[in-house]
Amino acid sequence: MSKVNQIAQSSFTANHEIYDRVRPSFDKDGVAFLIEEVMHLKPGAKVIEVGAGTGLFTETLKPYDLNILAVEPSEGMRESFKKRCPDVEIVDGDAYSLPVEDGIADAVLVAQAFHWFADSDAVKEFRRVLKKGGYLGLLWNNEDMEEASEVQRKCVELMWSYDSIVPQQRHNKWQKPLNESSQYFQTPFQEKKFKTSRLINKETVWPMMLSRSYITSLSDDEKQKLKQKVDEILVGAPEVIDVKLYLLVAWMQAI
Ligand SMILES: C[S@@+](CC[C@H](N)C(=O)[O-])C[C@H]1O[C@@H](n2cnc3c(N)ncnc32)[C@H](O)[C@@H]1O
């Protein structure tokens, strides 16, 4: 049986169009830091991107001219990916059995996805496909609750009250398998944060929530109740909301 989380599989297959439309891109400085300063990747370097989704992160790699193979288990996500990144090869696959031979990759990159497969089997598989000295790089956009306005804070806290049914980056369970991988990688993992923000229209708040797997998987009735609460928070809010985020970048080098 597939080890891919079933909520991830069904939700991302159902919501890929909304996801692609409303989710944020990735801070350019944070991406440049990882690709150039940490990994020293040169044009043509072989990269396996795992859980590539609709290509929101893949797109930010364009300036580096890398040789990317994107791997993604959700058919819907792959469909949107082909529209956003038509020049990048994407294949059906998952983090536990990457469809490539041993030791070919300079880097394995995972954006907004490692929490779905944060275990020792996936980490071992990443090491299998990496060259010695190659890098595993993980990235996540996160809500910056220290900087958030009251409207953002209330919406995010409401949304998070539904997220206990799925693995999420903010639950921090992803750190353990990384730090327990000293037979494969230099441990502990390292990390750096980049503060960022984006302006969204008030109308985008609800689709943003709907793009979360754990909201997609609610019943219509539950969604309706949640939407009412969101609408109440948004009464009197500005038309344009300044959403405060930070990009978390984490990495380890293969030994
Ligand atoms: C939140 S999306 C992130 C997509 C994209 N990387 C981005 O940054 O927008 C998480 C992705 O991980 C994928 N995923 C979930 N479980 C996976 C697994 N076991 N192996 C590979 N990808 C997986 C999902 O299908 C989904 O496309």
Automatic annotation (TrEMBL):
Domain Methyltransferase type: 49-136
Any one GO molecular function term: S-adenosylmethionine-dependent methyltransferase activity
Pfam families: Methyltransf_11
GO biological process assignments: methylation
Transferase among keywords: yes
Superkingdom, taxonomy of origin: Eukaryota
The keyword Transferase is assigned to this record: yes
Keywords per UniProt: Methyltransferase, Transferase
SUPFAM superfamilies in alphabetical order: S-adenosyl-L-methionine-dependent methyltransferases
Family classification: Belongs to the methyltransferase superfamily.
Name of the protein this chain belongs to: Methyltransferase type 11 domain-containing protein
Organism from which the protein derives: Tortispora caseinolytica NRRL Y-17796
